[in-house]
Design brief:
Helix content is about 40%, strand content about 25%. With about 280 residues, it is an alpha+beta fold. It folds into 2 domains: about 1-40; about 40-275, Phosphatase 2c, domain 1, CATH 3.60.40.
Length: about 280
C-alpha cells in the first residue's frame, strides 16, 4: 500500500511538471504571437492613387506568414507578402529574419528585385539546410500607372480589370524561394493598371485550402467567388474572403493564409481621403 501511494505521488508529480512545462510553452507562444502581430501594419495604407489592405489568418498561435506595406520617400506605395517554410515557432523565426533583412535592404535600394536579390544572398548564408522563404514585393508608380513587381517562389498574383469585370492570374515567371541558392534571381514583371483595377497577392495557404474531410478546394472556385464579389469595397472583399476560408475549412486551417489587396484609384483621390 505504501508503495502504491509512492508510485501515485510520483505520477502526480510528473503530471504536474508536464502541465507546468506545457503552460509555459503556451504562454511563450502567446507572447511570440503578440510580438509578431505588433510588427504588422496596424491600419490600411491610403496613398496617392492606391489603397492597400491585408489580412493574416494563422493555422497556429504563431506562424511563418507575414506582410508589410509602406509609403516610400517619393510617395510610392511599396507592399510585400512572405511565407516561411515549416510551421509554428520555427517558421515564425525564419519569417522574422526574412522581414528584418528585407527592411535592411530597402534602405539601400527601392527596387523590389534588387531588395529580394540581396535578401536572398544574406539569408542563404544563414538559413539551415532545407529552410526557405517565398516572397513577392511590389512598388506602385501612380503617375505612370505601373506596378513593378518581383517574386522569389511566390504564387503569381491575381489582377482585377474593372473594364473586363473579372479576375485573372498574372503571368509571372517562376523563381526559387529565398534561402535556397545565393545566386538565384527573382522573377520580375511590370503590370499596367488603371483606376478601378485591383491586385491580390496571397500565400499558398489559400490555394492549398482544404475542407474538414481533407479535400482540396479548387482555386478556380476561389476566383469565381471573387468575380461574384467584384462590387464590394477592397476591405470588405478581404473580410468576406477570410469568412469564406474559415467556413470552408471548418475553422481548422492546414496552413497560414495571407492576402493583400491593392485598390488603384485616380491620382489625388486616395490622397484626398488621407488628408481628410
Amino acid at each position: 500500500t505504501v508503495l502504491m501511494v509512492a508510485i501515485l505521488r510520483v505520477f502526480e508529480y510528473e503530471f504536474l511538471e508536464e502541465r507546468k512545462v506545457k503552460e509555459a510553452m503556451e504562454h511563450d507562444a502567446v507572447v511570440a504571437a503578440e510580438i509578431q502581430n505588433e510588427l504588422l501594419p496596424r491600419v490600411p495604407l491610403i496613398t496617392d492613387g492606391a489603397q492597400i489592405y491585408a489580412r493574416l489568418v494563422q493555422a497556429r498561435i504563431v506562424g511563418g506568414d507575414t506582410f508589410d506595406y509602406y509609403e516610400s520617400h517619393d510617395d510610392r506605395a511599396v507592399f510585400m507578402i512572405a511565407d516561411a517554410s515549416g510551421k509554428g515557432s520555427p517558421a515564425a523565426l525564419l519569417c522574422m529574419a526574412g522581414l528584418i533583412t528585407v527592411e535592411t535592404e530597402s534602405f539601400k535600394s527601392e527596387n523590389p528585385a534588387m531588395i529580394l536579390k540581396q535578401t536572398n544572398k544574406r539569408l542563404t548564408k544563414r538559413f539551415p539546410a532545407g529552410s526557405f522563404i517565398t516572397a513577392a514585393m511590389g512598388r506602385y508608380f501612380p503617375k505612370e500607372g505601373l506596378v513593378d513587381m518581383a517574386s522569389c517562389g511566390q504564387n503569381p498574383p491575381l489582377i482585377y480589370r474593372k473594364k473586363e469585370h473579372c479576375w485573372r492570374v498574372v503571368d509571372l515567371p517562376g523563381s526559387l524561394p529565398m534561402g535556397v541558392d545565393s545566386d538565384a534571381e527573382p522573377s520580375e514583371i511590370i503590370i499596367g493598371v488603371k483606376p478601378g483595377d485591383r491586385l491580390l497577392m496571397y500565400t499558398d495557404g489559400l490555394i492549398d485550402m482544404r475542407n474538414p474531410q481533407g479535400e482540396k478546394v479548387s482555386f478556380e472556385n476561389i476566383i469565381s467567388w471573387l468575380n461574384a464579389q467584384a462590387d464590394l469595397g477592397p476591405s470588405e472583399i478581404l473580410d468576406h474572403l477570410v469568412d469564406l476560408v474559415l467556413s470552408i475549412s471548418g475553422a481548422t486551417l492546414y496552413d497560414d493564409i495571407t492576402v493583400l489587396l491593392v485598390h488603384f484609384e485616380d491620382i489625388g483621390t486616395s490622397g484626398a481621403q488621407k488628408a481628410a
